[in-house]
């Protein structure tokens, strides 16, 4: 499970928040022998402290982090750090927590996957250590345009493309560009499904024309018009 699901971490978390455990969950956490928390590099300082504070309340032990529970954090701080709008993630990692000096660090020194591609592993190590300032992308890995990118990923026949093939886009706009190109290149009649939006408790609905509402893009919300073939 994700940490937010299992521990009921509030959103947002701050220096005074607690996890919202039920009575049954408090009993479960109280009897837990070990908590394993993966992707430690991405954990926000306030989130870790919120969990620690909540377990201190459950265990009635305020002088020990996490109420004295054994917590194993797993992760690599050369990977993705917490995302902070307008700031730097390295300033809000769990390494900034007051209890971090008491953490016992166990370092894995043998990377089994690195042995499969030693040159690539060395490059990743150089990037993570700050030795390599710029990553030069091999020429054979560069796509000249969207069409070239789609052809490399799915082949010439989109209808019979590998179901496991995909293009990872960084933004919603990039995803729209790629999807629109694929729809245009796919044979068949295009059907459009429009959202049926309605205003709730809106005092001035005339200020928000349907075309304006349809043009608003939000992460996690489907577009106002789905084009399908």
Could you walk me through the main structural features you see in this protein, from its secondary elements to its overall organization?
The chain has 229 residues and is mainly alpha-helical. Helix content is 30%, strand content 7%. It has a two-stranded parallel ribbon with strand order 1-2. α3 links the parallel β1 (34-37) and β2. The two termini are 35 Å apart. 11% of the residues are buried. The mean pLDDT is 89.
Structural key phrases:
229 residues; two-stranded parallel sheet; extended; 7% strand; 7 helices; mainly alpha; two-stranded antiparallel ribbon
Quick structural summary:
The chain is mostly helical. It has helices spanning 3-7, 23-31, 45-59, 118-128, 146-154, 172-185, 210-214, and strands spanning 34-37, 70-73, 191-194, 225-228.
On the 0 to 100 scale, the average pLDDT is: 89
Distance between the termini: 35 Å
N to C succession of SSEs:
HHEHEHHHEHE
Query: What is the percentage of strand-forming residues?
Result: 5-15%
Number of helices: 7
What strand order characterises the main sheet? Answer: 1-2
What is the total tally of β strands?
4
In helices, the fraction of residues equals: 25-40%
Query: Shape, please?
Result: extended
Unreliable spans are none
The largest sheet, given as strand count, sense and whether it forms a barrel, is: 2 strands, parallel
The helix-and-strand class reads mainly alpha
| Spatial extent as radius of gyration | 24 Å
Secondary-structure map:
Layout: H1 3-7, H2 23-31, E1 34-37, H3 45-59, E2 70-73, H4 118-128, H5 146-154, H6 172-185, E3 191-194, H7 210-214, E4 225-228
Parallel strand pairs: 1-2
Antiparallel strand pairs: 3-4
